[in-house]
């Protein structure tokens, strides 16, 4: 089957050079034979494990492949998945590492580092300052007709520009920096910004028919004329 016509045609179309090993000498194909041996041993151990009694065989195979492809190779020094994808795949083992490399601009790929530098040069927005522990006003979306501002205290920063704010009643709201105003602004300015530009919903006009006076019509006079 390894020398069939269809397989040879597949090799030619994809530019693959098919090299055959000498007969009855499996050591010539040692890398593939070791992989087969490793797979059989690990799969047998997984099947015989009592904890995997109700686990499908397909799941056990997927677990083995995930572990193997994300394990550092002794020759290349990198995991097969990292060589193929260009990055490390996030697994539970990665989470157990005490020292993890922090993603900075210095270790970013060149194709990513250049656009980031261009964005920094062109960025002219306001500087973000830490407001943790400060009393601020946050946008309140509880009213349907307009957006108001509610006083809160910034508990902690949970993102680059996202903060967790605690209201006076103890509720925690997640707000972006653009949805927060510090108390250095006047109260009336905080209350009127943007919310005043929101169109309020006017209640429907009710018509009271009792206020209208309709003239009385003499139906007998109309019939007599006809």
UniProtKB/TrEMBL annotation:
List, as start-end ranges, the regions of compositional bias called Low complexity.
191-202
Tell me, which GO biological process terms does this entry list?
DNA integration
Q: Which PROSITE patterns match?
A: INTEGRASE
Region described as Disordered: spans on this chain: 185-205
Q: Where is the Integrase catalytic domain?
A: 1-88
Molecular functions (GO terms): nucleic acid binding
PANTHER family to which the protein is assigned, alphabetical = PROTEIN CBG26694, PROTEIN NYNRIN-LIKE
| Protein name (Swiss-Prot/TrEMBL) | Integrase catalytic domain-containing protein
Q: What species was this sequence derived from?
A: Anoplophora glabripennis
């Amino acid at each position: 089957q390894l020398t069939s016509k269809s397989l040879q045609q597949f090799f030619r179309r994809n530019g693959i050079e098919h090299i055959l090993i000498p007969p009855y000498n499996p050591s010539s194909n040692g890398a593939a034979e070791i992989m087969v041996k490793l797979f059989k041993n690990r799969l047998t151990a997984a099947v015989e494990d009592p904890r995997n009694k109700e686990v499908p065989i397909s799941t056990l195979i997927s677990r083995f492949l995930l572990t193997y492809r994300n394990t550092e190779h002794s020759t290349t020094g990198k995991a097969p998945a990292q060589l193929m994808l260009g990055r490390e795949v996030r697994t539970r083992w990665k989470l157990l590492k005490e020292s993890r490399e922090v993603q900075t601009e210095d270790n970013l790929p060149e194709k990513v580092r250049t656009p980031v530098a261009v964005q920094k040069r062109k960025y002219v927005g306001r500087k973000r300052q830490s407001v943790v522990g400060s009393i601020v006003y946050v946008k309140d979306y509880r009213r349907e007709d307009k957006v108001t501002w509610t006083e809160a205290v910034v508990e902690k920063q949970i993102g680059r520009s996202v903060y967790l704010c605690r209201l006076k009643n103890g509720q925690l709201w997640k707000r972006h920096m653009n949805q927060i105003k510090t108390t250095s602004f006047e109260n009336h300015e905080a209350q009127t910004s943007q919310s005043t530009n929101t169109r309020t919903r006017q209640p429907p006009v009710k018509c009271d028919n009792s206020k209208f006076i309709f003239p009385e019509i003499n139906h007998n006079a109309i019939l007599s004329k006809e």
